Structures are given as structure tokens and as C-alpha cells.
Amino acid sequence: MPFTLHTLRFTIAYMNILNIIDIPWNSGLAAYAFEQSSALAERGHGIFFAAPENSASAAFARAKAFPLTAIPGRRDPFILGALFKLKELIETRGIDVVNAHTGRAQTMAWLLARISSRRTVLIRTKADAKRPSPGFTLGKTALIIAGSEYIKEMYLRAGLSPGRVETIYQGITPPPSEVKIPAAPLKIGILGRLDPVKGHLCFLDAAALVLKKFPTAEFLVAGGEETTKFAELERRAGELGIAAAVKLLGHVRDAAAFNISCDAGVIASLGSEAVSRAAFEWLAAGRPLVATSVGCLPELVGPEWLIPPKDPVMMADKLISLLESPERRLKVGAGNRNRILKEFSPEVFAARTENLFKKVSGGRN
């Protein structure tokens, strides 16, 4: 292939970016960090990770061949050794930006700026529901990247000036198939970890009401056990007399395939949802989505399909209105998919992310 300015763009690392993320699990916060780093790497920037040895972030860094520095987990207070390792990394590898993905990572980044001989820029990327505190390290960040307007508003309430926080939504590529009506019977799905905050019990209460009108419908629960157990959901379904209609699938490897198999999706969360990957996945699959009005969900779901948390009657009413009309389901689903293509593509996400990093770091164009 001939060498051109286009290929030159992807062979020069315009910025070297160190991501610090000290949580062990693969959460929405981690998923945002992974997509952000992948997008920047594809645009020619050098990506480095600092993460606990056996964490999801470490596994991601190894899979992508990003240089990895092991640091203590979030519950380990002994970070001095890790700080000196990261100081050496910053100085020898020419790190331009330290990108902190948690509160403690933000503190570590501030300490690194104090002890390193190389000047770096501190960016805080936030994609979780924990409320930010107006501490002194917050004032040292060049920019906050918020995964939703809901998160941005938390920072504004904490006293940050509007010019220092920017919202960038994740990008997602819709599945290749067109929006189609799934095979019978009618299926309503909920996708997410089994935790009380996700509202699975309310989902089952709504299912009992929907089944009175659509007795052959199925209610599919996809997600691994955490603080809510399968036995608890089975017991509640039995009490409601709907056990035969409820399918507990556990963790599903292919979320897109699961969503496409359903006629409609539900997010029944009682709180949280600061960044809702599940909402993006339902919209990208071209499925109508009924969701509670918590966190960032009002930013993604049309007002007609929002409900208050803990309201199974309204949830059932919305689902019944969708199940009654295949045409409505197709129209709403197609509209959701089109919105993803126009507003939340990976290309839009990558371009906005790169522009903000360059803006605050003085990176080359």
C-alpha cells in the first residue's frame, strides 16, 4: 500500500494517554472506558492502562495489546509503589494525558502531577452514578467528560463551572439486520444484572397484568445473579401464578441477538442508570423500549414510553399498547434504530472524544 498522509495519521501517536481505572469488574464505567480508549487508539493515539492485575480492565488492555501497569485495587490503600511505577511510565513513555475513571484514580492522577517531572493534563471521565464531591482534586482537572447529561448535572450541582464539563454519549453499532417482527409468541425482555435496583420484581408484577390480556406472552429475564437471586424471582413468579410465562436465561453472551428476539424491551430500574448501555442496545436493535424515568433514561427514551419507578400498572399499560399493534412496534423500533444511526454512532463518539482530548492537551491536528 502506498504511503500517504492518510496512513501517516494512523502511524503517529498524536497523544499518549494513560487510563487509570482501579475497579475489578466490567461495569458500565469500565465499558465506557474501553470504548473511549479503543476509539482514540483507532485514531492513532497511544493508549496505556493502569489497572489491578486480575481486573476486567487488565484483561481488556492485554486483549488490545495496550501497555499495562498493575496497580492496587480500590480497597488497597498502599498505592505508593504504584505511583512511582506510573511516574516512571509518564516520564519514559512521554504521557501527555492522564485520564482518571474513578474518584481514587483522580486522586492518583493529581499526585502524579505533583511528583512527575513531565507536565501532563488531567482529564476525568465519569460514567457511573456516584455523586462527585467538590474536593480539591476536582479543581485540578482540565476537563470532566460526562457519559450523560445526568452526570453533567451532578457536577454542576457540585459547583463545577459549565465550561469544564462536557457530555459525550457512548457510540454503538446497530446489529446488521433490519427491524422485523419476531416469531410468535410475543416476547418482552429485560436485560441487566440481577440486582434490586434493576426493578425485576416490578417487571414481574407488570407481567402478571399483561398476561391477563395476552396469556401466551413470554417474559424473558437476561442477566447474571448478583444480589438478586433466581430463586427470589422464581418465588415471586410462582406467587403471581405466571411461572410458566417467565424465562430466566442467566447471562447472555450476545445481547444484540437477545434484544432482536424480543418484541419489546423494558428497563425497570428504581435508580442509578447514570449511563445506560442497555438502553443503547435496545434502541440499536430496533426495538421499542419502556423505561423508568431515572438517571439518563429520559435523555434516550421518548416521553411517551417513560414511566415512574415502581409503577407496574403503568408499565403494563405501555406494554399492552405495544403488543396490541405490530405496526406501532415496528414504527417505534425503527425510529429508535434511526436515532442511534444519526446521533450515537461510534464515528460521532470517536470524533467528539478526540476533539476534546486535543483541545485540553494541545495535541496536534
General description of the model:
Helices cover about 40% and strands about 15% of the residues. It has helices spanning about 5-10, 30-40, 55-65, 80-95, 105-115, 150-155, 200-210, 230-240, 255-260, 275-285, 295-300, 310-325, 325-345, 345-360, and strands at about 15-20, 45-50, 70, 95-100, 120-125, 145, 165, 185-190, 220, 245-250, 265, 290, 305. Helix 3 (about 55-65) links the parallel strand 2 (about 45-50) and strand 3. Strands 3-2-1-4-5-6-7 form a seven-stranded parallel beta sheet, with helices on both faces. It has a six-stranded parallel beta sheet with strand order 10-9-8-11-12-13, sandwiched between helices. Helix 7 packs parallel to helix 8 and helix 7 crosses helix 12 (about 310-325). The longest helix is centred in the C-terminal third of the chain and has 18 residues, at about 325-345. The protein starts with a helix and ends with a helix. It has 14 helices and 13 strands. It is of the alpha/beta class and about 375 residues long. It folds into two domains: about 5-170 and about 345-360, 3-Layer(aba) Sandwich (Rossmann fold); about 185-345, Rossmann fold (3-Layer(aba) Sandwich), CATH 3.40.50.
The dominant shape is elongated
Count of domain modules: 2
Please give the share of residues in helix: 40-55%
Write down the CATH class of the largest domain.
Alpha Beta
Helix-strand category: alpha/beta
In percent terms, what proportion of residues is strand? 15-25%
Order of helices and strands: HEHEHEHEHEEHEEHEHEHEHEHEHHH
- Tally of helical segments: 14
In terms of per-residue confidence, which ranges show pLDDT below 50 for 5 or more consecutive residues?
1-13
**Adjacency order of strands in the biggest sheet:** 3-2-1-4-5-6-7
CATH topology call of the largest domain: Rossmann fold
Mind describing the biggest β-sheet? 7 strands, parallel
Q: What is the tally of beta strands?
A: 13
Gap between N and C termini: 24 Å
User: Mean pLDDT, as a whole number?
Assistant: 92
